[in-house]
Alanine--glyoxylate aminotransferase (Bicyclus anynana), 389 residues
Amino acid sequence: MLATKILVPAPKIEERKITELLLCGPGPCNIWPSVTEALTKPIVSPICDEYYNAMEDIRLSLNYLFQTKSKLVLAISGSGHSGMETVITNCVAPTETMLIATRGIWDERALNIAQRYNINAIPYRIPLDSTFDFENIETQLKKWRPTALFITHGDSSTGTVQKLEGLGELCHKYGALLIVDTVVSIGGVPFLMDEWGVDAVYASTQKALSGPAGISPVAFSERAQEKINNRKHQPPFYFDVKLLAQQWNCYGNTRAYHHTLSAPMIWALRQCLKEINKRTLPVFWKTHHDVTKHFHKRLQQYGFKFLVPKVEDRLATVTTVVLPRGYDYTTFVRHMRENYNILIFGGLGPTAGKALRIGIMGVNATIEVADAVAEAMAGTLKALTKSSL
Ligand code: PMP
């Protein structure tokens, strides 16, 4: 007997059924069948060639996904927040200023992260159902002269998409780096990193890429790399892109061990990117645009109202809908799940109790899914009228 004193007995773990749902919230969404298969591939060690070959496929595909020629592209072990923490802490030093264009919960998270690192974080807030115009941003840049501007491209808490063309140039005019969250926009909405002058970007796998959460692509422009290479501060070890670049072999022939990246996540991300490369970005963007247009038309026919008033501000991957007075959002979401096996979400952060959030993206970006969700929503509206009004 090696251990005579077992003070904590082993709990009995019961079999639990996990129902497969049509995941039409703001993420996670369902995954490609080929990704399910990729997740079962053998585990290899971080020193194996298979690992590095897959990482190289990933880096090249991320150059395509973000539309950047940058060498510093890689993926962080962790969900979207790990990408957020990485770009902020590598690009902005403690006591430097970061201006945060704030309209949803992700910008508030960026504020929280920045404050924990003693960054002088300045939120610039606008109403949750709108997007930023560049004149106001310029006034803020002039006023604060920040090291960086943080902005969210697609906001899954509000269902808005921010125009970014020209924003990099504006930031650079005032000496600021442009940091962008593309977690729920990448792959589903046009994004051109180099063309738009974006300096640091992060994404995630569980939205339009249709993979499991747990690995987050990031990329840095030359301007951001210069800042990173000359910095005096130390970002957290786990998120230090100078060290991670050596593991990801970004500048060639380093292959240094930093941490044990999860092999299944590497296989999964590689496969998600393969699915997108195969379709091509312009086709995938158009698919999301067309399917959402159809979905919105169906919702309007059923009398649903959108949270975001301007059509051009509405995000193609996540739609926010306001229910008529007297309806309870939680009851609506539960009814959809129990009666249609469809998971949509209520609001989050500024939209909590104010909207439904419906995500039709990635593998689910089809007319069939859009129709099924619109019909289920109409059925739910009708069913709940009797009981709740
Ligand atoms: N940014 C956006 C736009 C998101 O939608 C999310 C996730 N819903 C995040 C950041 C955070 O990502 P995660 O939950 O994967 O950490």
Q: What stands out?
A: The longest strand covers residues 97-102.
